[in-house]
Amino acid sequence: WSEVGNPTKVPSDRYAKKINVLGFLNTKNKDLFYEMRTGSVNSEITVALFDKFADKIDNKPTVVILDNASMHTSKLFKNNIEKWEKKGLYLLYLPPYSPELNLIEILWREMKYRWFDLNAFASFEKLKKHVQKLLDGFGMEYDINFS
């Protein structure tokens, strides 16, 4: 909090850089498969991560719940669905504009608004390290009850 007329200032890196995390979450055992990237994410990056995840599940039937982000609905992405299904990876699209139905959104929200240390914004390197700490600590130090 801060006094009226005296806003609190949080030091931050002056050059806008971005961290994106793409992830697959098993809410039953808290298994989180993710990739953290700096910069933007497009269909090619998303397809590459889905390829890695499809290899990881080793033909074990797995359903991934998706929102309707452009990277999940692009022609390139959709052209890979049959290949993933042959590896046991099936996709279930949520209705448009319903992030409350996507449980991984709860994780992103908790990270952003509950677990984040404001000091992490002092530099981009600190920010990356803190995001990595939160992701690596999920299910142990940082936990969510999805039931």
Explain briefly what this protein structure is.
This protein has six helices and four strands.
Folded structure, characterized:
With 147 residues, the protein is an alpha+beta fold. It contains 6 helices and 4 strands. The strands form 2 sheets. The chain has a two-stranded antiparallel ribbon. Strands 3-4 form a two-stranded parallel ribbon. The radius of gyration is 18 Å and the shape is elongated. The two termini are 33 Å apart. The mean pLDDT is 92.
Descriptive terms for the model:
6 helices, 147 residues, two-stranded parallel ribbon, two-stranded antiparallel sheet, alpha+beta, elongated, Nucleotidyltransferase, domain 5
What is the strand and helix layout of this fold?
Elements: E1 19-26, E2 31-38, H1 43-57, E3 62-66, H2 70-73, H3 75-78, H4 81-86, E4 89-93, H5 103-115, H6 124-137
Parallel strand pairs: 3-4
Antiparallel strand pairs: 1-2
